[in-house]
Amino acid sequence: MSGTEEIARLVLVDYITFGSAILISISIGIYFAFAGGKQKTTNEFLMGNRHMKVLPVALSLMVTFESSITMLGFPAEVYVHGIMFWWALFSFMFANFIGVLIWVPLIHPLKVTSLYQYLELRYKSRGIRLLGTSVAGVGTIFYLGIVLYGPAIALDAVTEFPIWASITLVAAVSVLYTAIGGLKAVIWTDVFQCLVMLIGMFSVIIKGTITAGGSAKLFEIVGNNGRLNFFNFDPDPFVRHTFWSLLIGATIRTSGLVFNQSSVQRISSMPTQRAANKVLLFAGPAFLFTMSLAAFEGIIAYAYFYTKGCDPLASKQITNANQVIPFMVLDIFRNLPGMSGLFLASLFSASLSTLSSGLASLSAQLTEDFVKPTFKDLTDSRTTMIAKLSVIVFGMAAVAVSFMIINIEGPITEVTYSILAAFGAPMTGLMFYSAYFPTATKKGAVAGVVSSMTFIFWISMGQSFSTTLKKTPYLPAGPTDQCAAFGENSTSLLNTTYFYSPTEPTITPTSVFSGFRENEGLDRLYAISYQWLGTLGIIIFLVIGSLVSYITGRPDPAEVDVRYILPIVDHVFPFLPKRFRKWCYGGAPFEKRQQLLDNMDQGVMNQEVNFISVVDTEKETNGKPYKEEELNTTHL
Q1: Of the candidates 73, 93, 89, which has an alpha carbon nearest to the alpha carbon of residue 81?
Q2: Less crowded by CB within 10 Å, the N or C end of the chain?
Q3: Do 41 and 173 touch, CB atoms closer than 8 A?
Q4: Any idea of the CA torsion for 142, 146, 148, 149, to the nearest 10 degrees?
């Protein structure tokens, strides 16, 4: 970027490469629209007939939560705040291990399509089910809106393509192949998009490292400029990033990913529980690996522009840190036609995978939680048609949210985690509460959801919209002495000012900034690290939910249906003597759980064993084995 270099732009080959990736994704959807059962049943459209394979489902699960937020937000985060954010990436791996421990053994035997069917079975209350699916549905729509905005920022950075057109294009492509191809199309396009995404990331890493002077020179540059700030053990929850908030807080927050409709659809699409465990065990380390690649791109970008002597943020060639990577890509591949298009294809692929999975989950929620229970005489073909049409409606809703968030300032990662904590925290709290608290009641569940969501939503809105809140400043920017060749025209290529503002101060290290001490009034509360919002929301839920359950009357533990609950002592302290662990059950007959599950009628959804009669029968027979007809008694 020195001398008389011209600003690089996309060429025809780039557009062809980018367009080819989009067309292949659509083609996969068209194929599954006519293959197999042709998506004529809800079981095939929503669940892939529950006979999917481990590897494609694992890859699909991985890229479901890797979108433009990963491809743009993670590198931007590292570029301006340093590598410490890398610790948060371990949370995705740990969350999947938690899923193997808790969620698979709880959900897979029930063969549910919607996660929120579990809540109705757990509390014998349709109201809880509708509350859960509504809160989660709104949260998913907000998430998809943010995901839609990411590639629009990138395309705006390297072309004159309007942001509104980019948003509409990505949404339309995702809606098309999801609506016609169902879950099978979603999973197999995810596999293709995963490959494109990885090729794009490796291309950027290899070429960027070489251009920046090699790995040794790269780490020397970022180390000398404060970007290798791996450790900060400050326990202050108002410090934006510390080791504790990024590892512990993020793990608790990210555990909500396995308590998620997209995850449940993939877990339930597997033929066996063992296969479902393999999906999560594979996806966990894969999360860490691919997201680490994205974070490393931020290090490469800083070293690259430092070597060039022209920091694009400080020189205002770009006014949005989420545009750093596409801006660098366009420059390093200026003499390699097609490579910039490949990167754009990988970025759009990451967003398409998340969008399609989110739309598929919303369709499943609407169908299973609202349509089927309300219109019981509706034929399966008409129900499937409603599920397909709902994909279009939800896609339009995500587009509306994307336009709404345009003027929110702040890192895309921080904005995402802050806003979504208002929906994710109460749902994660609800699932932990339902799975591990035998005396939980529906009144306690409702109180927990309302209180947690209200409080965290208030905090997240304050963090996003407060005009007086002092936020953690960036690390020192790179040099700008070689930017003169671009003159006044350097800002014409990029004209958005949304997620990052380069006018923020860049002289105060992030490790010494405490939001509580630097802010006043309500801003002190808003200054809490966004990484702790999920934990705070879960704690509020458990305290309020337990208190309300205690006041309104808890059920007898001996009469709780343990098919829908797990013994926490067995998970946390499995090394304790069995007799002591049984005492910790508090009277809940967890020792009978597996027997009850083994005798469930797997062919009928939403049927319940009359648990009280089972327990009474055991008492009457003095501990003799249950009779099959007694275990299969139903009352729903």
Answers
A1: 73
A2: C
A3: no
A4: 140
Secondary structure in 3-state letters for 339-392: HHHHHHHHHHHHHHHHHHHHHHHHHHHHHHHHHHHHCCCCCHHHHHHHHHHHHH
- Residue 200: pLDDT above 90? no
pLDDT number for residue 31: 78
3-state secondary structure 42-83: HHHHHHHHHCCCHHHHHHHHHHHCCCHHHHHHHHHHHHHHCH
pLDDT digits 0-9 by tens, 542-594: 999 999 999 998 888 888 888 888 888 887 788 888 888 888 887 888 888 77
CA–CA separation, 501 and 321 (whole Å): 8
Task: Express as a percent the part of the chain with pLDDT over 90.
Answer: 14
Is the distance from CB of 371 to CB of 383 less than 8 angstroms? yes
Q: What is the pLDDT of residue 47?
A: 57
Task: Specify the residue for token string 């780039």.
Answer: 14
HSE on the CB side for 507, CA within 13 Å? 1
> So what's the pLDDT on residue 484?
66
Bridge partner residues of 634 (DSSP): 609
Q: What backbone torsions phi and psi does residue 51 show, to the nearest 5 degrees?
A: -135, 40
Q: Is the dihedral of CA 305, 311, 313, 315 positive or negative?
A: negative
- Hey, what amino acid is at 9? R
Q: Which residue has the higher pLDDT, 625 or 196?
A: 196
Residue whose structure tokens are 């459209």: 45
d(CA 105, CA 110): 9
pTM, two decimal places: 0.79
Q: What is the pLDDT of residues 538-554, one digit of tens each?
A: 999 999 999 999 999 88
Contact 541, 426 (CB under 8 A): yes
Q: Are 268 and 112 in contact (CB under 8 A)?
A: yes
Q: What is the pLDDT at residue 584? A: 80
Torsion of CA 539, 540, 545, 547, to 10 degrees: 100
Question: What is the pLDDT, as a whole number, of residue 34?
Answer: 73
At 634, give phi and psi (nearest 5°): -125, 155
Assign 523 to helix, strand or coil: helix
Residues 54 and 267: their CA atoms lie apart, in Å, by: 10
pLDDT digits (tens, 9 = 90+) for 63-86: 777 776 778 888 988 998 889 989
d(CA 570, CA 590): 10
Residue range 306-365, pLDDT digits in tens: 988 888 888 888 777 778 888 888 888 888 888 888 888 887 777 777 888 888 888 888
Residues 333 and 343: their CA atoms lie apart, in Å, by 10
Cα→Cα distances 73→1, 309, 545, Å: 24, 23, 35
DSSP 389-430: HHHHHHHHHHHHHHHHTTT--S-HHHHHHHHHHHHHHHHHHH
Rounded CA-CA distance 144/358 in Å is 7
